[in-house]
Design a protein that fits this description.
Structural class: mainly alpha
Largest sheet: none
Helix content: 55-70%
Strand content: under 5%
Order of helices and strands: HH
Amino acid sequence: MDPRAAQPHRNAEDRDVDYPRHQHHHRPSPVGHWTRTIGALVPLVITELVPYHSKQIRFIRIASVALAVLNEGNYAFRVQQERREREYDRERQ
């Protein structure tokens, strides 16, 4: 059985064709990147620093809610900023 059976067969002439890539809706935000990175690392740090399991679970839940609020605040700020820029551009026209 061919290990690449799930991949479509491409001809030699198709290899030179550039296929369009998916474009992101928004440019990546450094704050969003760090929020997601911290969100991934917080459970590891908490389990290393907090000795009791019940407190670990509690602190992980608190941290996840806090990071979700921070993420939503960052998103709301970015949307508000984009709306202001669009409104400013409409006024200039």
